[in-house]
Specification:
By secondary structure, the chain is an alpha+beta fold. Helices cover about 45% and strands about 20% of the residues. It is built from five helices and six strands, in the order H-H-H-E-H-H-E-E-E-E-E. Helix 2 packs antiparallel against helix 3. It binds zinc ion. The site of zinc ion has 9 residues, from loops.
């Protein structure tokens, strides 16, 4: 329902990224509980013993099915979500004048981001996308938080690798680049990896 009423691509992206798997899981859970209770009403009831036997059997079946679905949602479903998220993020935005906007490259976009945004993008897992209407000059800036977003794990290949924490190894100064280390952990196989990123120096060289 929420997705049907949300038309903004960025809002849809955030909603799917944050909630879709959880909400599907809650839905499956309530459905399973409902179905097993319903199954209990169908069984002929002779004695208390049978009552508990049937309750136990339906409970077990519901649990097994639940575990299977939970695993599918956790490990296979993210690939499906990822595809949709990518499409939402890179579909051309439409300006108020009904023109297709253009997504700027990392180099081009810096002009439109203030210093705080640039620093945030250089350090930490934040990405800003800048869309521009080349005729009217209208811009739209969208913020993507990499910490909330799972990547593909090198070890098990599932879409379950997330940034665990980040550490500034070397702060950037006016003249020197800094270094940022990102530590990733896989939610499936527990694989850990780290990757070093350069934090651009604070002062731009005068052209
Ligand atoms: Zn893994």
């Amino acid at each position: 329902m929420k997705l049907v009423t949300t038309t903004d691509n960025k809002a849809r992206y955030d909603y799917i990224n944050m909630h879709e798997i959880n909400f599907l899981w809650y839905g499956v859970l309530s459905l399973l509980i409902g179905l097993s209770l319903y199954a209990n009403t169908l069984a002929p009831r002779q004695s208390w013993l049978w009552f508990f036997v049937i309750l136990f059997i339906t409970g077990m079946v519901a649990m097994i099915v639940g575990v299977i679905i939970q695993n599918i949602l956790k490990f296979y479903y993210p690939f499906f979500i990822e595809k949709r998220l990518r499409k939402l993020r890179y579909t051309a935005r439409i300006s108020p004048d009904n023109r297709k906007m253009k997504l700027l490259s990392e180099e081009e976009e810096d002009v439109y981001l203030d210093e705080g945004m640039q620093a945030e993008e250089n350090a930490f897992s934040v990405d800003y996308d800048v869309w521009i209407d080349e005729i009217s000059g209208f811009t739209k800036i969208e913020k993507y938080n990499g910490r909330l977003h799972a990547l593909q794990c090198d070890e098990c290949n599932y879409q379950t690798l997330k940034v665990d924490h980040e550490e500034v190894i070397q702060s950037a100064t006016d003249t020197e680049d800094g270094e940022l280390m990102k530590y990733y952990a896989c939610g499936y196989c527990g694989h850990k990896q780290r990757k070093s990123f350069t934090i651009a120096k604070l002062k731009m060289e005068e052209a």
